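Below is a concrete protein record.
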Amino acid sequence: MREEDDAGGGEFVGARLDAGLRAARFASPPSADEFAAAIEPRNAPAVFRGVVKDWTASSRWDPRRGGLDYLLEKVGPDVDVEAMMSSTGHVLVPFSKFMNSCKSYLRYPNASSDSPKAQEILKEPASSEEGCSSSLESCDQVYLAQVSILNTENKERCSLEVLKEDIQEPTFLRGKPFSSINIWMNRAHLRSSTHYDPHHNLLCVVAGCKKVTLWPPSASPYLYPMPVYGEASNHSSVSIEEPDYSSYTRAKYMKEYSERVILNCGDALFIPEGWYHQVDSDDLTIAINFWWKSRIMNEILVDQEMNKMVHENSLSCSKGTTVCQPTDEESGGPEQLKHKQVNFGSSDKKDSPLQTLEPSTLQALYELISLVHNSVEMVSHNEITEPTSRDASCMQSNGSEKIAADDSSLLEKDPIAKIILPLKPLELQSMLLAMAHTFPRTLEALVLNMLGPIGAEILTRKFDEMDQQATKEQQSEFYKTFYSVFDDQYAAMDALLNGKEMFSFQVFQSVLRQYIGVHADRPN
């Protein structure tokens, strides 16, 4: 079933990208069982050639073969969609206007977007947003990005649900809990920013061509993620076209850790969560993508009996780490927490983060602080030091080391994960804010020195759930406060992303052991 890797035709594999992280290629679709057991838990990309060529979308949507008229008729004249413009961002426009602008581009592909010919169609008045027409006229790029066909979290956003009739759920994704199915369409050639997504992603091209460059989560230091408290914290700061190596010195190595794959009509690409990717789309390209949460994490949350799938004591590498220690003010640990809680005057209560916590959340905070302080005391007693997680995380320092296997449950092996898993997203948010304000060094030590793979996976899942329940302003304020406690914010991001990558490897290893009795070494 698997093809030989093809480095020609514009595809590329960086010299430093480990062989175990390179995209697998399949000439025919795998079964749902094969995908779930051997492809998804591998946590590496996979290319499926021709897997969606039989969709109605692949045969009827092509703009160069009458697809624009077909889409206009199918969607109708009265549907508005959220389009992206390079100059002003999101804007609501009639779907018919965007289709007509694509027709105009098809007739005059060499005309600039602000030329009279290219603007003929766009001068029609907008039906849903005042000033939309003038914004379109001044924009050099208009495209549809993440317009929902299916959205389980917000059904009101499914403006193009009627198009679901023209696509089919790939057989190997059967049973996946999709969070959304979206359409992406650009008029002229388009280049995306470099970013990662918090969900697994299957990108399917139904017209045109896309060139996708991929980086594993471990390449994050070379990509310089944007400030973690901003709206685009999952995006790279480095310009692909003109990288500034004087400001981003490590970026000169980013190509060596990358791989580029080419997707034509009918092809699909599996992009695991946390993998950075940058996409170049030929003009008049249309794609569909499916987003879903990883199977393993869903099963952990639904049925804790599945915890036996991963076998590792996530604290085995945190003992002896002395990178971050609580301050003298925090050295009282849990007793200091009790003291702080009891001794607030009436004028302080309303301003104290601790006073807003529910009893169960306060207990969880107490237990986390106890873990950190007990670990610090053990390290101080033994006088053992380790490198920081940024420079040589112990989760990755010995890639060939065998993961210990026993019959203990996953959460029992990771006390931090066991504490944070039962907390509701906003309860966890309140607890972390309380730690940031009251015990900042303890929080720093927790994330950088003690957070194991399972804890990193659960914590980032909780972050995703928080984001779904908060406004953009609330998200920004939380992340700004949370990450402000770290002297090196990139080290915190590395700890989380490396932990997630290690978690995926553990799951992959466990599945191999369970299904085929093979033990896989972690890639170096």
About this structure: The first strand starts at residue 12 and ends at 13. Residues 386 and 392 are 9 Å apart (CA to CA). The chain has 19 helices and 14 strands. The mean pLDDT is 76.
